[in-house]
Structure to design on (206 residues):
């Protein structure tokens, strides 16, 4: 049930006041909103979550033009029903009861197929009255194949008002090459996240 979930996982980590502002990467993230999803993939220590959290600040100010939800994943979410309950809770932070049909069918015995669950969520997302950006942080902690089947179908059929951001230390088992060729995916990798000369100078002078 939703009331048993740890709601702190739905709150994004605020960037530190001393975090270096990186306009070139913020522009890259802005440009990616025209795609179905953005992948931020790099090893630990590259500032992935800090960057995306800083970007969200720019989306919300001075006047928000879209809603943003955040879900910090952990090892306990490595099963589709729990993953989906958290996903629904994150979306419903801004759109209450919008995912209720999904959470209801999750309780059915036998459970519905991954395709049915994904299609049901896509249908609910298509009814949202505003644009939504959903961030999934620490996706590398998820190994359940059913979760990635669900995400594959969700991304392939996502409505125009929905954008998914995946933050991970390793590339997820998704059809990334196909999406890249189709222009469905924006991506930032370790070579993008590394400091350029101007950023290095700014960091050393901070």
């Amino acid at each position: 049930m939703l009331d048993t979930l740890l709601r702190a996982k739905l709150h994004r980590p605020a960037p530190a006041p001393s975090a270096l502002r990186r306009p070139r990467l913020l522009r890259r993230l802005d440009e990616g909103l025209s795609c179905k999803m953005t992948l931020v993939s790099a090893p630990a220590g590259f500032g992935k979550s800090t960057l995306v959290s800083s970007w969200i600040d720019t989306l919300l100010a001075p006047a928000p033009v879209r809603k943003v939800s955040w879900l910090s994943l952990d090892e306990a979410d490595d099963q589709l029903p729990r993953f989906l309950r958290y996903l629904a809770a994150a979306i419903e932070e801004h759109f209450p009861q919008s995912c209720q049909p999904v959470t209801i069918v999750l309780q059915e015995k036998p459970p519905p197929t991954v395709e049915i669950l994904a299609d049901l969520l896509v249908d609910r997302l298509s009814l949202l009255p505003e644009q939504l950006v959903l961030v999934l942080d620490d996706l590398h902690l998820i190994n359940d194949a059913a979760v990635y089947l669900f995400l594959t179908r969700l991304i392939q059929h996502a409505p125009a008002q929905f954008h998914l951001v995946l933050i991970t230390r390793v590339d997820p088992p998704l059809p990334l090459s196909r999406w890249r060729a189709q222009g469905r995916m924006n991506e930032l990798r370790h070579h993008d996240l590394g400091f350029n000369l101007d950023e290095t100078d700014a960091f050393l002078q901070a």
Observations:
- The chain is about 40% helix and 15% strand.
- The chain has a mean pLDDT of 91.
- The first helix runs from residue 23 to 31.
- The radius of gyration is 17 Å.
